[in-house]
Input
Amino acid sequence: MTDAPRTGKFHLARGPVSGKATDMNWCSMLIIALGTSVVSFAEPVKFQSTDWPAWRGLQGDGHAQAVEGLPLKWSITETVAWKTALPGRGHSTPTIVGDHIYLATAEADSQVQSVLCLAKATGKLIWRTPVHTGKFLKGGNKHASHASSSVVCDGEQLYVTFPNDKQVFLTTLSMDGKVRWQQPVSDYVIHQGYGTSPMIYQNVVVAKADSKQIGGAVVGFNKQTGKELWRIQRPKYPNYTTPVMVTAHDQLQMVFAGAELITSLDPLTGKKHWEIKGSTQECVTTTVTDGKRVFISGGWPKNHTMAVEADGSGEVAWQNTARVYVPSMLVKGDQLYATMDAGFAVCWDSATGKERWKERLGGAFFASPVLAGNRIYATNLAGKSYVFSTNPKEFKLLATNQLGEETYASPVISGSRLYLRVTAKLGGRQEWLYCIGKN
Output
């Protein structure tokens, strides 16, 4: 198996899921958001501008590259290049590198958690590797899947995390689907589910598992051998964020929120740059930055969105009570954009938190929005996708599109095509991966 030539440079990644079992509103629904994943390298690995090698894309921030010709309108019969039926169920977002697409999925009947590889041009299955068989964790939210974490690719290997046998495991596969090594990250007790993905920096792959009753850990492994390099124990809270690499205040740092903390680490050693209190207990969203502040949000036991100076001072630039619990946010220029769980789109000034506009889209949102030029693409739980402008002066809806009856996975953009993992329920539940664009 060979990869297509890679010409772009993948330099820096900047940058889902939990709830309270007794709260059956939004708290009880947030596990299904996809785990986040970010990749960064000391010597930039060459990727194509059309690659989407990790949870939030080429730079790990939800921004698509090279989007000329990306469609505005589609349906089950309109602007579909291909569609492929997927086995089982999963909320793993497609990962795209070269000519291939990688997905995690879980089949409840046979209790198999697998990684799939599809041909990007046609959707044809190339290989399928079982990673775990049996010993699925019991309990959790009805919206959860056993394959909510995204596959991460560094151009040489694939990395994926699954909860299984009362633990969370990190598994590394070759590009042709052979398991190279597997290591336990931490013991794990299901609260709502598990949705955190690996993060790669230089020769280290970082995995994290936060658990309510027993605590958890964030761990750095040698990505070639699987040797544990460092380990940090975590508080006894369920939490679903993934560590992400951001450059803020001219410092490259690994940041994540949740468990009442906001933490910045050196991913090579696990040494803390800084750590402050201020996060709520349970967070889901991937941290993003405007170069000075990091933006986090959470939803249990309180709703909050925060901007924190990333210089270790602990200064909170601004905060509000907006519920951006599951969908990760976007930064463009001096603006911060979000699709709120309850179906609103909002734009804030990133420095002050001043609301520029807020408009109702509709439905509930678990998938994270993606940015393509001056457009934002966002898909709700019912499979309706909204395309709207990034104009900070006013909200402008450009298109609405319906595909399937249920969507947990975030949209992925590769060049002039959009990839959506959706569920059709008529005639029996079936998941599909759609490629939207000209054939």
